[in-house]
Amino acid sequence: MMHMWRDYNPGEFHDELMAGPYQPRHFSYRLLDYLQSMRREAFEQRVADSELEMLERGITFTVYSDAGNIDRAWPFDIIPRMIAKREWDCTEKGLIQRVRALNQFINDIYNEGQIIKDGLIPADVVYQSKGYRPQCRGMQPAFGVWAHICGSDLVRDHNGTLYVLEDNLRVPSGVAYMLENRKTTKRILPELFKLLSISPVNDYPTHLASMLASLRPELSQPTMALLTPGIYNSAYYEHASLAQQAGLILLEGADLLVGQDGYVYMKTIHGLERVDVIYRRIDDDFIDPLVFREDSVLGIPGIMQSWRDGKIAIANAPGCGVADDKVIYAYVPEMIRYYLNEEPLLPNVPTWLCRDPDQLAHVLDNLPDLVVKPANESGGYGMLVGPHSSEAKIEEFRKLLQEDPDNYIAQPTLKLSVSPTIAGDHVAPRHVDLRPFILSGRDHYVTPGGLTRVALVEGSLVVNSSQGGGSKDTWVVDENGSGVSL
């Protein structure tokens, strides 16, 4: 298959596997040597087998469109992304540091609000955020943790510097696809797991169950459920998969009620049975029609009061989406210094706050070169990527910024790192990001690696599966270890 790599050239971009033309990185040479030594027919068969595996196992995601909701097979590239364990150990410490500070921030603003009183974050930035829920004031969840499952998106620039692009703390998705990517790769390329020492990820469901159980420390065996919006949700495959693997009961809002004693119960053929912990995969707006959207049929009337009374634990806690806000993102380095008295181990992408007149002027002067993001959108929607946008789109955003500058941030257009990816009959560089998952309860756990998302379209920076992106297995490799079967 060597000819498929003959013209491979990452150009000006940092390559995750290649140090230079025809020069693998020290931790990737065994992988690349193995792949390049395969006969083309054998390699193409492995690719076909991976696609068939995804279809046969029903690994799908839903794309919402004007034509209706479309289930698609999960787009997967069999050439893995690799990270040296030495680097990953430092990244893991930085992720734990970050989520500790974020949880202290959330706990602070719903209680003392000291960071606002001390002038580090303007009050209106917090209180006008769409994710801020005044109904959560005075709450103190177990261990002071609000965001129990966090998916922080990491990107690398052309110099190889790793940045945190954003933090997803409401209902972060993708971890089931990370697990499925690993299962598929182990079946398609089993020999490489004997050749290399690759950190396992298959224990994530066990860590998830342990973390959820820790939220009710007074109970020896709490009953735990995953609350899903139902089969028409784009992430329903993930909900069902995680529930099955972590030993959670998969439930919809209609399956639950709050009893007269204030506890939450599920309806069964044997009568009502109490539920102690809920891993919720629905947004705040829909969780309790008595408190938030009264037209919601997805939630459970009265569950917010049950949570406030300590009769149900909810992960992630209502209200934690305030730290998901992209304007508040700009203040995270200061949060780390403020709450932990430490310097950030992982930097933010350089960010301009459009609420500041001087920074707004800079953004308006350089709009064609910048990425502009609204505070509360996700999935790559509602944003401007200046270098890839039309003049009309740029002018549209110029007006939006002038009308509502508080709602926007701007960042430089990073030259995102690339990784070798199958592109038809050859291998080509494609831009990637990485979403590791951090669990927080009594302790912390970080997935070794995470979900690598890849922009399958040449030149595209959009990695989201709903907009044409795909994914790869992510290998954290111990360069000094011997191969083991994982």
From TrEMBL:
Q: Which domain of life is it from?
A: Bacteria
Pfam families recorded? CP_ATPgrasp_2
Positions of the UniProt region annotated as Disordered: 465-486
The Circularly permuted ATP-grasp type domain covers 80-455
Q: Which InterPro entries match?
A: ATP-dep_Glu-Cys_Ligase-2, CP_ATPgrasp_2, UCP005522
SUPFAM superfamilies xref list: Glutathione synthetase ATP-binding domain-like
**This chain belongs to which protein, by name?**
Circularly permuted ATP-grasp type 2 domain-containing protein
